[in-house]
Amino acid sequence: MKLHQVDGYIQSIYLVEYRYGLLLLDGCCRADIPILLKFISDNLNRPIKDLKLVVVTHMHPDHAGAAHRLRKMTGCKIAAANVQGQWYQGIDGVLMHWTDLLLANWVARRMKKPRQNLWYNAKLKPDFLLDDQEPLPGFPEWQALLTQGHTDRDLSLYHPNSGQVYIADLMVKVKGRYIPPFPIFYPKRYRQSINKIIALSPNRLLLAHGGEITPTTEDFQHLLEKAPTTPITHWRSVKTKFKRAFFAT
Description:
Elements: E1 2-7, E2 12-18, E3 21-24, H1 33-43, E4 51-55, H2 61-64, H3 67-74, E5 77-81, H4 90-110, E6 128-130, E7 134-136, E8 139-146, E9 155-159, E10 164-168, E11 172-174, E12 177-179, H5 187-200, E13 204-207, E14 211-213, H6 217-226, H7 234-248
Parallel strand pairs: 3-4, 4-5, 5-6, 10-13
Antiparallel strand pairs: 1-2, 2-3, 7-8, 8-9, 9-10, 11-12, 13-14
């Protein structure tokens, strides 16, 4: 196994190389498609149809945005968590999808990246639905771990032989410290997910935003201390800011 980390549009891309095929540990941004395909063809000197499986860890633009197009272009399969329904459902779902796209564009501007089209289908159509601790189809050395909290369908991907875990957005690096992501819809599940990762005693964590790290006890303790006890979501943030502005007048 060779694990390749590639700089994506606003997040790290993790591509696992085997002789028999390539595994993409997350669905990336739409803007990452040319970056990824160029890396496969130019750096790995392999045909793009060697991409066999893309795992979508959750439905945010930088984790699901490239999945459907990659399947169409390469013939790969898509795997996601075995959770009923779509993340972006109903009118609220439409509004949240647009908000998440705006947030992704805001992050890109903060990173001084050129503006790109990040639009993607809000409804995922996976080929495989994964349960907790289920081996990945075609790549049984890797296990799917249900690590909810950020959303209701977050996955982490565990490679027991090397002690590595790709945790997507379970934690993010800000000003040199590791903190919970925004949003957190399910605080109790989020804490359970952190403790699940701690129990694995991982040698290395692979972060979508923060690269590869070797976590310390202090890192995990700080993360748990910062973990919210009530949901922190788009709508709650807007309501809080509105109340502050209202009462300040």
